[in-house]
Amino acid sequence: MSTDVYEQIRQDIVSARLPAGARLTEAALADEYGVSRTPVREALRRLEQDGLAERGAGGMVVRTRSAEEVLEIYEVRILLEAAAARAAAERSTSLDRMMLQQAHQAMTEMTPEDPEAVAAANRRFHERLWAAGHNTTLIDLLRRLSDHLTRYPTTTLSRPGRWQEVLREHEAMLAAITASDPETAFELARAHMSRARDLRLQMWAEEGSAE
Description:
This protein is mostly helical. 73% of the residues lie in helices and 4% in strands.
């Protein structure tokens, strides 16, 4: 029961149904999800450990967003994505590479007009890349970091020219993985995520100046 409640609240936070700063009170959440306070209490403890919730002056709230958080997330994600790409180049099977190629091909057949669709397709490519490295700890950490970024509703893929740029970067990473070239895959993935970080911070600055 506590796991089910945790997953429900977590999804509501990631999808922004529970926005940044929203109060997370045991009584209200227990009523909403139709459970007792005990599984809600356990779920909130896990969400705080995940970094999706934090303690505010009036109790537990959905973690607020900030440029500092973006930097922290990307500081770690750049290294982990690069490590995942290197692992994929070292350990991927022919099936892994085929599935990664299929994910990339699906992206090339899309147009960037639908931000949610292209963001989902991009995530599928990265999930295939993570899986190709066959490191479950690395996959778990990357999924957690990806969830944090999902809380920021505007995707970097919406920037003019970024979609085609991403396709080129993915194609280069895929080629390095297929060629079993771990160091090239590492450097390409690091550059790819560094560019995403720079764009994310630029978008944050622009959104902040518009408020």
